Amino acid sequence: MRFTVERRLQQPRWLVVAVPLASVLFGFVVAAVVLLATGHDPVTSYRQLFDAAFVSTGSLDQTLIAATPLAFTGLAAAVAFRMRIFNIGAEGQLYMGSITGAAAGLYLGGRGSASPWVIAAMIVAGCAGGAAWASIAGALRAFFGTSEILTSLMLNYVAGYILTYLIFQSESYWRQTKGFNATVFPTGKPLPSNAVWPAWTLHTQGGIALPLGAGLAAVAAVLLWVLYRRTRFGFEVQVLGDSVGAARYAGVRTRRKILSVMAISGAIAGLGGASQVGDFSHSLDGDPNGLQRQGYGYAGIVVAALARYNPFAVVLVAFLIGGLDNAGNSLQGADFPSGRVGVIQGIILFSTLGGELLVRHRVRIARTPQAPAPEPAS
Amino acid sequence: MTQRKLALAAVLLVISAASVVLALGTSPGAAKSSSVFKAAWIYVGPHNDGGWSQAHEAGRQYVQKMLGSKVQTTYKENIAVGAQFSQTVASLVAQGYKLIFATSYGYITPAIAAKYPDVDFEQATGTYQAKNVSEYFGAAEDTVFLSGMAAGAAAKCNTIGFVVAYPIPEVIRHANAFALGAQVTHPGVAVKLVWTNSWFDPAKEKKAAQSLHAAGACVLGQNVDSPATGQYAQSVHVPWVGYDSDSSKFAPKSWLTGSVYNWGPYYLKRVKAAMNGTWKSGFYYGSINDGFTKLAPYGPGVSAATKATIASKEKAIENGSFYEFAGPLYDQSGKLRVPKGKKMTVNQLYAMSWLVKGVIGSPKG
User: Fold this and answer.
1) Contact criterion met (CB below 8 Å) for B358 and A161
2) Considering only alpha carbons, which residue of chain B is nearest residue A326?
């Protein structure tokens, strides 16, 4: 017997539904085998997973903490990948957005401006910081043909070092320098109260705080959908993504598109950074053991791929992955090493992504006799 | 395209519906109150890192062993500061944990302390205190100083390498104590620093050790969490001074000694207090005298004469006749920082931002 994988000419609609569902199920089944092999009851473990992600009191609060940045970095990846611009730099763009967003919040907040203005300025500053950082890789690609995959990835490390430098290795504007605690361990200067982003409380499950950032991510998703579906710009970007030659022939300005798409992608990631400061940490988190260990920028690529670059799906997938991420912390413990949690999460994500192959391709099983005879050795 | 989009929406709907169904089928999250007291530990690295977190884990196991079925303990490992810490605490509280030991600085923020007023928190190495937040640590500088003496005696050249984590006062004072100790047994020796900017990163620690050795260091020491420095030291046949835990088994030939912590007794005292309702916020600073810090057993490379010199200094520290952070102390530029007859206080040690004479490296990382 011989297996061949070939492209489907048509994608039946039911497959688009069935394959991801079956893939998720498959992932859970394989993960269950791992759980059984390591002496855990899969049913109990999965219950605990769902409890901690979506059900128990306060769990949705914590899921949103992970889901909000993932929605931003997922959208950032989706918007660029759609045009086949592989921006791997959402991680660094998020850091830069948190730096510029925090600067705006500290400066305007400290001067006593009205809260809505301070928050609006933080949003704009966060977008600008991320967009500027992404534009470095964008310009290198547009004018010199340098691979944006490499440059945007390298810039993540640079951004990380800048972030650490601002809090740990200098007495910068962002660093708290007053008080005894601040001399013992470096921390960011806390935002004034008028720069802290509001959260709306939904009165279910003991009160869920819906952060402003989560709302902004949803708004960003709508705007991106409109941009890609209802404007000439979006149409041209999609043509470019499908065929650069055809787009050039039709008179699309490639360089401009590369620059704008990178800037938009960076702006969304940067907004995620501003949301980190405004919604959650309320100061610039320069601890290499903090924000930089979360890897939201890289996880955003997975979110975008699972959502097939559809902005609305990105928001939903970010919520589900945020839940999985949050629940992992609940699952691990003295009897459940953190590495095994990573294995379970990895199996589920890998199966779901791997299943995509079956939507676009089909596996044919050919019997050996019918297979073409091996070519004679020359 | 529209069909695919619809289908996609359907898939996501079904997935979320399935999770809701699964979720509704589960029991309510909050654990039923039971007579067993629950305490949890949160580690910055793996529980078996061979250093810092492993020493805390030994303390947790000590508590579990001493109190048996009266307590239920667990740990969470590899937890980052910020979002992940807040998620972890939320899940522990939901499961009924009443006492949480956060074993690294930066974990506990005023917001977290205020969010869970019924839970008692303890944070190692920090200074932030609140009604439900205690801080605890100990004078490791004394034993790090003694371990530095072993390093100085073993050095056949004039440079000792010291792998350090973050440029923060805790690490700076340990580097200073180590250098002061080395200078006692090896006058004029230089202690060279390389920062890793991480508590636990074996790959970076090994590279730091490598670069120190290449720069002429003939003994290696460390203030990071893993024994990677020691493993590298053994591979190039140079002596090594560890930290946090007795990690001689990772490099038995290179191992000289190391300053180690005994967290268990403090943990036991605090868990007992929380169980009978007498827990109060406080600041604990253990010492060589109450057994909180000590020197790990010596390796084969420490001579009998060195052991005797260290033992007499240890006695002097115990009875208070010697203190390594007493004047005169000079900084790297030769400026007098602590005049003769003055001793540094714990608060000054907690804010120490300058390196002593003989240390090569920047206190800013």
Assistant:
1) no
2) B87
Q: Closest Cα to residue B340, out of B327, B330, B331, B329?
A: B327
Does residue B184 have a pLDDT over 60? yes
Residue B27: predicted pLDDT? 42
Q: How many CA atoms lie within 13 A of A53 on its CB side?
A: 26
pLDDT of residue A53: 92
The token pair at A295 is 């890897």
Whether A323 contacts A53, CB under 8 Å? yes
A371 has pLDDT over 70: no
Q: Find the CB nearest B94 among A56, A65, A337.
A: A56
Query: Residue written as tokens 């970076």?
Result: B204
Give the integer Cα–Cα distance in Å for A24 and A17.
12
Could you report the per-residue pLDDT of B257-266, keeping only the tens digit for each?
A: 999 999 999 9
Using alpha carbons, select from A363, A53, A322 the residue that is nearest to residue B22.
A53
* pLDDT at residue number A57: 83
Q: Tell me the C-alpha distance between B151 and B191, whole Å.
A: 10
* Shortest CA distance from A283: residue in chain B: B82
What does the CA dihedral A353, A325, A210, A208 come to, rounded to 10 degrees? 130
Architecture of domain B37-139+263-286: 3-Layer(aba) Sandwich (3.40)
What is the C-alpha to C-alpha distance for residues A324 and A50, in angstroms, rounded to an integer? 8
* Interchain proximity A185–B46, CB inside 8 Å: no
Statement: B140-260+293-360 belongs to CATH 2.60.40.3080? no
d(CA A359, CA A363): 10
A323 contacts in chain B (CB < 8 Å): 19
Phi-psi region of B138 (alpha: psi -120 to 50; beta: other; left: phi over 0): beta
Residue of B57, B165, B157 lying closest to B105 (CA atoms)? B165
With both helix axes pointing from N to C terminus, report the angle between A148-168 and A90-110 in degrees, rounded to the nearest 10. 40
Q: Residues 59..118 of B with a Cβ closer than 8 Å to A: which?
A: 73-84, 86-88, 90-91, 93-95, 104-106, 111
- Each domain of chain A, given as residue ranges in start order, spans 62-305
Q: What CA–CA distance (Å, rounded) separates B142 from B330?
A: 18
Q: d(Cα A197, Cα A213) in Å, to the nearest integer?
A: 8
Domain boundaries, given as residue ranges, for chain B: 37-139+263-286, 140-260+293-360
User: Residue A311 corresponds to which amino acid?
Assistant: P
- Determine the pLDDT at residue B3: 56
Q: Return the pLDDT at B133.
A: 98
| Structure-block tokens of residue B24 | 């509704």
Lowest mean pLDDT among A350-359, B109-118, B133-142, B299-308: A350-359
**Burial class, A132, CB count within 10 angstroms (exposed 0-12 / middle 13-18 / buried 19+):** middle
Structure tokens at A65: 């903490």
Is A289 in contact with B74 (Cβ distance < 8 A)?
no
CB neighbour list of residue A212: distance below 8 Å, 6 or more residues apart: A119, A197, A198, A199, A275, A278, A279
Give the global pTM: 0.90
A201 touches chain B (CB under 8 A): no
